[in-house]
Write a sequence for this structure.
């Protein structure tokens, strides 16, 4: 199968999913067999934990409503070993939302807690014409970061989780959410995943079946791609009238350096990307300063982001980052340093028009699960926290006074989330024309805050982009194990503890055109997809799926596959990302 004009399109090879029903359970277990909670929050990331903290603050002043929610008023269901274990971001965060959530905790205390690394006071933006040169340009308004805070999102989530637990939240870590409970047209909670199954799904000696976790309200805060959010969008037509969601992939390292970095640095377009319309590569990099007040170490966050709408199958965010580090500007910053962390994560890039409807009977969607990312500004954490707060207030109004959960959507539209994303509603779409033609339109849209050119610009799915085997890989540097690194050694330092005999949580067709197989092989930062050496150079080939390498980045969902929740506790255990 192929797309238009005989070109190979990953979307023509959809993942083997039985049906949307696979992720929905319609008959609840008996009362004696299920776990009843007041509010079930799926995902212990920034949005979910912000929701838990704000909701518990409100309930603390309303003992009557709190009592009606039962012994477990708020449960946070997190598939990683700890909250924050699967969380990764650049990250330079606008501080207002976190200050709003924890008004009694100062920014100095953030640093003492070990998740914040200093206020940003300087910034620089560069174009890189080639592997040697740099051209400094004025920072576009969205990339101005003066006054923002350099943070570790994994560390921030651990802090937020501790605060929520102290207030009475029940943290169900190492617990995947496998199915959405739907009864009589409303969400009733989630079904947790089984534990202790073998490769073929057979129960092992330590097998533990999942359980129905029923709730009065469910919060879907699964991050950039969640199986239950996807199921909810289909079940309740939350995507009707919206544009399809599209994605970017970021790969990040943290380095301990010998000299402190005094500013935020971004590069936009240019080297090492191929900017011709044929290759359709759009992306850029970041280098952020991090000062660890506890240890006195000077650290640097460095990463590369690539739009997953690219055409060359050999495009690799991980290898682009390794190659980017060989530029003299970067080598000067990292020289004499040591890599101490690595990770990768996809992020929703569709913006305002791609956000689904955010409420349904019995549930709401928050944060990255709802597409709340401003890719023009490289910001999402502040929106996730703001959305979590806003959702908590709408949920409380629903529980205490019977108000509609649909009020949450109106509140989001009037909040900084809705207003900021509306201003950049058409910023990403012109890149479909390529960097040369689309770049000036993007700048015009940013300058006019979306007023000109106005209207609604459409998006197309990433897996609808035809792919070919190009020459991007010929420019990647070879890893030396000291300054540049391969994928598998990078996965090793994530603390990934997925069982070798765990069931496969990745859905892809395993007999596909060479172009699709190469796309998956190069795209995956963890080396999950492999093509046998004796495979033909053209036509259909088999794909080996090394799913135990997976770091849950979610990129495969953009290019023809499907990431589902792994067994609880599997995947990386991020610390500094």
């Amino acid at each position: 199968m192929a797309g238009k004009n005989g070109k190979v399109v990953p979307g023509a090879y959809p993942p083997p999913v039985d049906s949307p029903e696979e992720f929905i359970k319609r008959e609840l277990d008996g009362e004696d067999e299920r776990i009843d909670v007041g509010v079930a929050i799926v995902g212990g990331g920034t949005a979910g934990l912000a929701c838990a903290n704000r909701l518990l603050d409100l309930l603390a002043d309303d003992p009557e409503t709190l009592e009606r929610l039962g012994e477990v008023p708020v449960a946070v269901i997190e598939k990683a070993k700890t909250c924050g274990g699967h969380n990764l971001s650049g990250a330079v965060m606008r501080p207002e939302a976190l200050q709003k959530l924890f008004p009694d905790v100062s920014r100095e205390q953030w640093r003492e807690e070990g998740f914040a690394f200093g206020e940003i006071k300087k910034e620089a933006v560069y174009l890189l014409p080639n592997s040697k040169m740099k051209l400094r340009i004025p920072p576009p308004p969205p990339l101005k970061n003066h006054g923002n805070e350099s943070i570790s999102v994994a560390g921030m989530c651990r802090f937020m989780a501790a605060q929520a637990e102290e207030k009475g939240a029940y943290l169900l870590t190492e617990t995947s959410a496998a199915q959405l409970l739907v009864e009589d047209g409303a969400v009733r909670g989630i079904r947790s995943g089984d534990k202790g199954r073998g490769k073929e799904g057979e129960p092992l000696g330590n097998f533990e079946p999942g359980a129905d976790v029923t709730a009065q309200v469910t919060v879907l805060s699964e991050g950039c791609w969640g199986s239950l959010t996807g199921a909810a969008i289909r079940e309740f037509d939350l995507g009707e009238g919206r544009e399809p969601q599209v994605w970017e992939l970021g790969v990040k390292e943290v380095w301990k350096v010998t000299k402190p970095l005094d500013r935020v640095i971004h590069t936009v377009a240019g080297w090492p990307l191929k900017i011709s319309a044929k290759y359709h590569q759009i992306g850029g990099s970041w280098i952020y300063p991090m000062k660890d007040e506890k240890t006195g170490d000077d650290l640097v966050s460095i990463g590369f982001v690539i739009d997953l709408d690219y055409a060359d199958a050999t495009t690799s965010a991980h290898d682009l980052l390794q190659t980017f580090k060989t530029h003299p500007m970067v080598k000067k910053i990292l020289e004499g340093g040591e890599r101490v962390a690595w990770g990768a994560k996809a992020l929703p890039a569709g913006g305002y028009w791609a956000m689904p409807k955010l409420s349904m009977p019995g549930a709401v969607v928050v944060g990255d699960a709802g597409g709340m990312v401003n890719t023009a500004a490289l910001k999402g954490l502040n929106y996730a926290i703001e959305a979590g707060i806003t959702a908590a207030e709408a949920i409380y109004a629903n529980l205490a006074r019977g108000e509609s959960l649909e009020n949450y959507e109106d509140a989001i539209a009037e909040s900084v989330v809705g207003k900021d994303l509306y201003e950049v509603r058409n910023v990403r779409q012109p890149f479909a024309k390529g960097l040369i033609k689309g770049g000036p339109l993007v700048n015009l849209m940013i300058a006019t805050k979306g007023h000109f050119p106005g209207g609604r610009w459409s998006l197309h799915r990433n897996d609808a982009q035809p792919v070919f085997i190009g020459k991007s890989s010929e420019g990647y540097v070879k890893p030396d194990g000291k300054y540049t690194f391969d994928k598998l050694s990078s996965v090793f330092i994530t603390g990934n503890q997925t069982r070798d005999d765990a069931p496969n949580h990745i859905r892809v067709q395993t007999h596909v055109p060479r172009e699709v197989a190469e796309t998956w092989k190069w795209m995956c930062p963890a080396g999950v997809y492999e093509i046998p050496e004796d495979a033909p150079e053209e036509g259909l080939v088999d794909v080996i799926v090394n799913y135990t390498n997976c770091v849950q980045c979610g990129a495969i969902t953009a290019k023809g596959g499907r990431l589902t929740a792994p067994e609880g506790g599997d995947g990386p255990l991020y610390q500094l990302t």
Notes: The mean pLDDT is 95.
